[in-house]
Design brief:
Blueprint: E1 3-5, H1 16-21, E2 25-32, E3 35-42, E4 48-53, E5 57-58, E6 78-83, E7 86-92, E8 99-102, E9 109-110, E10 119-129, E11 132-141, E12 144-153, E13 156-161, E14 166-172, E15 178-184, E16 195-202, E17 205-214, E18 220-225, E19 231-235, E20 242-246, E21 252-254, E22 274-276, E23 282-286, E24 293-297, E25 304-306, E26 313-314, E27 319-321, E28 324-330, E29 336-342, E30 347-355, E31 368-373, E32 379-385, E33 392-394, E34 400-404, H2 418-424, E35 429-434, H3 443-446, H4 456-470, E36 479-484, H5 486-497, E37 503-507, H6 513-519, H7 528-531, H8 539-545, E38 558-563, H9 571-584, E39 588-593, H10 603-621
Parallel strand pairs: 1-33, 34-35, 34-36, 36-37, 37-38, 38-39
Antiparallel strand pairs: 2-3, 3-4, 4-5, 6-7, 7-8, 8-9, 10-11, 11-12, 12-13, 14-15, 15-16, 16-17, 18-19, 19-20, 20-21, 22-23, 23-24, 24-25, 26-28, 27-28, 28-29, 29-30, 31-32, 32-35
Helix pairs in contact: 4-5
Length: about 625
């Protein structure tokens, strides 16, 4: 029988230090010859990204870090290839953003040229073509940013194509005759509208560039070549990101009609939503946010086979080698796992590597999707991680921590999160709100935020809170709210527009929409055109939607975290919120971290921010946590 104990004071086996030490993450995979490579971000090594081989172990020795800054969010920043029968690694070095090449555990040598004085050149999404590497380049020259497709080789660098402002996913056909890629222009974001383009390749140059699919109102993603130079890709032309096919004349076929998402918001370049198998079938992932499945599709018959697997969410980083496929997944019981799939038996063959939870499974919460209904009748989706401990239960209704995901074009999944377990094992329930505008629920739901950022997201958060209070899930006077980046924007807006929250935590939250529109990085500089309106024509609306405008109404205690190297949300925004807390006489804390950007990567920062946040909540709600 469980012992009753004040929520927030439960002794937890999960310390912030233990969480940070176990906080490695896996994202990208690639087969290299007969070997499998993947990357890991390791907070314990200062947050560096290194490449790991199944055969050789760590390939990229310290202190090198494979981290591109293209779009500020990066993506797949390395490429494995075979040269002279030896495995080689090309990677974008975080420190100077140049491409380097090394053998496993070798001494990297610069491959891309040093940029002109006063410029910064960044690279990403590389493919090997003969002795060259073809990839996307991003050039920063004074206040201007432009991108192009380039070929980098022993003889230097040459431009392949430069007619677009944004590029993604360059892919060369197996016979080397065609190159395809995805392109889009301001003010579109890649989930608004993109084009799949193709060009003939002759003598290493591109000719006859044309559009095969997509437009400003259709999002196309992740094109891959089939065995007969047909293109498979993901498109949301039907209202859902589904599997489509195009031939070289632009004839389109909607292969699978499915009211679930096969695609993803392209926040990081290199994301791969599908792979073409040797037998011509397509490997992909589909399904609702709480029950995703790896699927195999026969494009001729439309027959689909879901993989029997206990994982329920998968990264868009599929890779294939012969009769084996590789995917990174998670579930309510698994933090992260890289699995090998035998395509002949259509079964999981082995677990290549895992990010293991540092606590016993008895302490895991049981995340699951819930739904709330707004006053206008529309449904809002959320993921609930209820407070849980094998030895304790709350002596009264537990606090609820509302999490607002970033993006805001993103979503949260019903998978095991150690950051959430840090709170749930201490007696604080967590609800992660997939407010209108989130991905995973089709284009119509995704478009709910159009012109309504700062309105719909706040309304949806409050609808979920009201529903959980009405159901008796949490105490009405112990509701907390936290979020980072765009999630921080909603946190701040919720706090200035509602008295519902006992306290809040803003991680590098957006406070000033005008600054975000005029002073942020190029990738997101027109993001708000669709979510608020064109600037400066709608300047008054930008001011009205900004939490900064209404900070005099801020009345809840607030803890603020900020990276001092953040290029997306500069420290000045968090400092303005801090100053408002001082002016309003509010209990607050402001913690800034050297060496951190938009999203914390260092173990020391993760430990400090979590412990500070938990103690702050304890001071507000009247409990003394065991950190």
């Amino acid at each position: 029988m469980k012992q009753k104990k004040q929520a927030g004071t439960w002794p937890s086996p999960l310390s912030a230090s233990l969480l940070a030490q176990a906080g490695n993450s896996i994202m990208w995979t690639q087969s290299v010859g007969h070997d499998l490579w993947w990357d890991e971000v390791r907070p314990s090594e200062g947050g560096r990204t290194l490449v790991v081989s199944r055969e050789h172990g760590d390939i990229l020795k310290a202190p090198w870090s494979a981290k591109s800054q293209v779009h500020e969010y990066g993506g797949i920043s390395w490429l494995g290839f075979i040269r002279n029968d030896l495995p080689m690694l090309a990677f974008v070095n975080k420190a100077d953003q140049r491409i380097y090449i090394t053998e496993p555990q070798g001494e990297p040598a610069a491959f891309s040229p040093e940029p002109p004085v006063g410029q910064s050149h960044r690279y990403i999404d590389m493919i090997s073509v003969g002795e060259e590497i073809w990839c996307i380049r991003e050039v920063h020259a004074e206040s201007r940013v432009h991108r192009d497709l380039v070929a980098v080789g022993p003889q230097g660098l040459r431009c392949l194509e430069s007619s677009s402002h944004f590029y993604a996913h360059p892919r060369l056909s197996a016979d080397g005759r065609y190159l395809c890629w995805v392109a889009w222009e301001h003010p579109q974001m890649p989930w608004d509208g993109t084009e799949v383009r193709v060009a003939d390749v002759r003598d290493g140059k591109l000719h006859n560039v044309r559009v095969l699919a997509g437009n400003t109102n259709t999002s196309c993603l992740s094109p891959e070549w089939g065995p007969n130079n047909q293109l498979y890709f993901i498109s949301d032309a039907s209202g859902w990101w589904n599997l489509w096919q195009a031939d070289l004349t632009g004839q389109l076929s909607h292969l699978i009609h499915d009211n679930s998402e096969w695609g993803f918001p392209l926040w990081q370049l290199g994301m791969r939503a599908l792979s073409v198998l040797e037998d011509g079938q397509i490997l992909s992932v589909h399904g609702p946010v709480d029950a995703r499945k790896v699927v195999r599709v026969n494009p001729q018959t439309g027959q689909m086979q879901d993989l029997l697997c206990d994982l329920t969410d998968f990264k868009p980083s599929l890779s294939v080698s012969g009769h084996m496929a590789y995917v990174v997944g998670s579930s309510a019981n698994v933090v992260s796992r890289l699995i090998e799939i035998d395509l002949r038996s259509w079964q999981v063959a082995s677990v290549v590597t895992s990010i293991n939870a540092p606590i016993d499974a008895a302490f895991f919460p049981k995340p699951h999707e819930i739904k709330a209904v707004r006053k206008d009748g529309r449904q809002v989706f959320a993921i609930l991680h209820a407070a849980h401990h094998p030895l304790y239960e709350p002596s009264e209704k537990p606090p609820l921590m509302v999490v607002v995901h970033g993006g805001p074009t993103a979503n949260s999944t019903a998978t095991l999160s150690m950051k959430y377990a840090y709170f749930t094992t201490r007696g604080i329930s967590v609800v992660d709100v997939n407010y209108g505008g989130s991905t995973g629920y089709g284009r119509e739901y995704r478009n709910l935020l159009r012109g309504q950022w700062g309105v719909v997201d706040c309304e949806d958060v409050l609808a979920v809170v009201d529903s959980l209070i009405a159901q008796g899930v949490c105490a009405h006077n112990k509701v907390l709210i936290r979020g980072g980046s765009a999630g921080g924007f909603t946190v701040l807006n919720a706090l200035v527009s509602s008295q519902q929250f006992a306290a809040g935590a803003s991680y590098y939250g957006v406070a000033d929409c005008t600054t975000l529109a005029t002073d942020t990085h190029d990738f997101e500089s027109r993001y708000l055109d669709t979510m608020i309106g064109a600037y400066p024509a709608e300047k008054a609306l930008y001011i009205e939607r900004s939490p900064l405008t209404h900070l005099s109404r801020l009345s809840s205690p607030l803890v603020i975290f900020q990276g001092l190297e953040d290029k997306v949300v500069p420290p000045s925004q968090s400092e303005a919120v801090r100053d408002a807390c001082v002016a309003n006489g509010l209990k607050h804390a402001y913690v800034a971290y050297e060496g951190e950007g938009h999203g914390f990567r260092q173990a020391s920062t993760i430990v400090s921010s979590l412990e500070t946040e938990l103690r702050f909540y304890g001071e507000v709600l009247g409990f003394v946590p065991q950190v």
